[in-house]
Every structure is written in structure tokens, then in C-alpha cells.
Amino acid sequence: MDGSTPQKPQKPKGSEDLWLSAAYEVLTESGVEAVKVMPLAKRLGLTRTGFYWHFKDRDALLEAMIQRWEDRNTGNLVARCEAYAETICEAMFNLFDCWLDNDLFDARLDLAIRNWARNDKALATRLDRADATRRAAIIAMYERFGFSGDQAEVRAGTVIYTQIGYISMQVSEGRDERIARMPAYIEVYTGKAPTDGEIARFLARHNM
Length: 208
What we know:
Helix content: over 70%
Low-confidence stretches: 1-11
Strand content: under 5%
Shape: elongated
Structural class: mainly alpha
Oligomer: single chain
Distance between the termini: 66 Å
Number of domains: 2
């Protein structure tokens, strides 16, 4: 025995992703005003000091969440619009992957960002830019398959406004039910009926 006082084990600092995931849950459940460092620490069973190992301050955490939203939702949507397709129907099915795969497009996060932007002018500007980027990608997808500029713009608007409506109204719809309706949506958005082969390939990649 050396007579020294035993030190209490330090609580772990957690990882950056752990703090971000906790902030995401609070943001999507209760809004941005509820995202605060001390409550997050208590939620995780970590120390407030641990937070500052990963983020300079609360604003840095919020910026990281916005960046995650831009990369995931806008970045992946653009990538799906640019993915290889032989027909406009196949291209639209590529885009529809976003509405079925939360790793590609997080509807809960999109709604939380839109609600947050109502009271944050800087974020509202970034949201407008993201929506413009998404719209441009969908317009380009239509034009790639021979639609005129006017047709592409109107049809792209229809796609975007419908999806924002789904998100904002928090439509409750079973996954199987939604997938079953997607060929009809393809026809509405493109004026063309998808082939049996196109539908089969889409269903197969979603394990249907």
C-alpha cells in the first residue's frame, strides 16, 4: 500500500458519431432548441467535458448535423439521379431508392431541418440551395431522356413537391403498400409505364 488515494475511473468521452446520433434523436424528436450539451451528456451517460473532445461548441455540433443532412439527403439524391439507366422509368426507379432506403435519404432529418429553417435565416438559405440542387438534378435526369426544358421543369417540380408533402404531412404508409404504388407513380411522373423487367429489377433490389 503506498497510501495514495485511488482515482475514480473517468467516464468515457464517447465518439463523435455517438454525440451526433444522440443529437439527431433529440433534433428529430423535439426540435433544435432541445439540442443542448448537458442534456445530451446525461442522455449518453457521459461527461460534458467529453463533448468538447469532439466539438468546439454547440454550434459546431449543429453544423455537423447540417453537413450530415446535406451529404446524405442532397448528395445521395443527386447521385441517384445521375446513376446509369437505359430509360426514364429506370432512372425514376433509381431516384425512388431514396424514398425506401434511410441510408440514402433520411425523411425524419429532412423534416427536422425544414422545421429548424423556419426560424434560422442562414439555414433557410442552405435549405433553398439544397432544394435548388435537388431540382436541378431531377430536371437534368428528365432532359437526359429527351424531355423538353419546360416538361422537365414541371415534372421535376411535381416529384419534389409530392415528396416534400409526404415528409411534411408525415404520411403513414406501409413499406409494401408504398412500393406497390411506385410503378403507378412512375407513369404519373414520366407519362410512360415501366416494363415488367424494370419493375422486377426494382423490386429485387428492395427484397420484394
